[in-house]
Amino acid sequence: MNAAELQIRLKGFAYRIVPLCETLPAKKVCKVIEDQLLRSAFSAAANYRAACKAQSPKAFTAKLSIAFEEIDESLFWLEVIDDLKLIGREKMILILKGLSLLILHHIMSSIRAIKLPVK
Hints:
Elements: H1 3-22, H2 28-52, H3 57-83, H4 89-96, H5 101-113
């Protein structure tokens, strides 16, 4: 997976989170989870994009590190939704259209493997 493909995947992941969040019950805890999950998913995509446009190796590493942390946070909030059974597992699968945690782990591995091109 190259950098452009990873940008598309991360952005697509963030978009798939929106309908999932809209199906959460109207509970106080769900509002917190919704807010955090939306922020982390979109932040992961935005920070990876910024890393790809970095002007220096230091800037690249910093943005990439943030993207990695945000993906991990997104995984955490998805696990919380599942652990608390806030939406049915079948519904989560439908909303995410088959995007599983394994794919997110693959994305995280890909981010670790990508290196700043030598100019």
